[in-house]
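Input (structure):
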């Protein structure tokens, strides 16, 4: 009886270890899959995935470079050694529509400059000063009024509503990845014996995707918009 009891004990222990390891492997695989996903949003009847990445590392909702309060992507505009440096930024859109579709995109951005003063009087310190940075319109290949550069394959038509209209029809039942931004230019900061500065951009993306033959009706634009 003692031998049978020990045998059952070791069998139970072995089974427990195997189940635990299997669960651990499955859990690890699950998190690996989640890490490879971008930010998934819904646009009407379509699910779209925004693949924002730095040096190929995709930003998701758990990333330190996603601001949950602002619900925006955080981009370092001044330090080329930073993981989220603007020169390492890439933004793609992944979609697999069940019907042929058209897409329009609007990138909303805020650039903030923060100035810190050095060797202050401890009795009367100057708090960090924050100010908004405004960018000039540099024309193509830059996004309007932005240091972000379009990917050369993202061919567009523009309207006066601020959206960039992708000029290709997205085929149905096929996963399509559309490169939008390939990188951006840095902002020049000041560093001297009196002060130093930091600069960050916060990015939000509005996008619409509609059935290809209903774009005029849904978006309220001319039915000849893409051929004019």
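Output (sequence):
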């Amino acid at each position: 009886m003692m031998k049978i009891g020990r045998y059952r004990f070791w069998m139970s222990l072995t089974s427990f270890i195997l189940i635990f390891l299997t669960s651990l492997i499955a859990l690890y695989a699950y998190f690996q899959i989640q890490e490879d996903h971008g930010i998934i949003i819904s646009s009407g009847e379509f699910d779209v995935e925004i693949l924002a990445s730095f040096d190929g590392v995709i930003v998701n909702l758990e990333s330190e470079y996603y601001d949950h309060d602002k619900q925006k992507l955080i981009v370092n505009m001044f330090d080329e050694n930073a993981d989220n440096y603007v020169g390492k930024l890439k933004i793609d859109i992944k979609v697999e529509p069940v019907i042929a579709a058209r897409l329009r995109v609007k990138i909303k951005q805020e650039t903030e400059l923060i100035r810190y003063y050095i060797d202050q009087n401890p009795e009367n310190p100057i708090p960090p000063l924050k100010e908004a940075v405004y960018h000039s319109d540099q024309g193509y290949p830059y996004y309007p009024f932005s240091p972000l550069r379009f990917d050369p394959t993202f061919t567009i038509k523009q309207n006066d509503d601020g959206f960039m209209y992708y000029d290709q029809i997205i085929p149905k039942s096929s996963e399509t990845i559309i490169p939008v931004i390939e990188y951006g230019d840095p902002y020049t900061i000041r560093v001297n014996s009196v002060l130093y500065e930091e600069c960050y951009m916060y990015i939000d993306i509005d996008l619409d995707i509609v059935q290809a033959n209903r774009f005029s009706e849904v978006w309220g634009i001319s039915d000849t918009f893409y051929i004019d």
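Notes: The helical segments are 2-35, 215-219. The longest helix spans residues 2-35.
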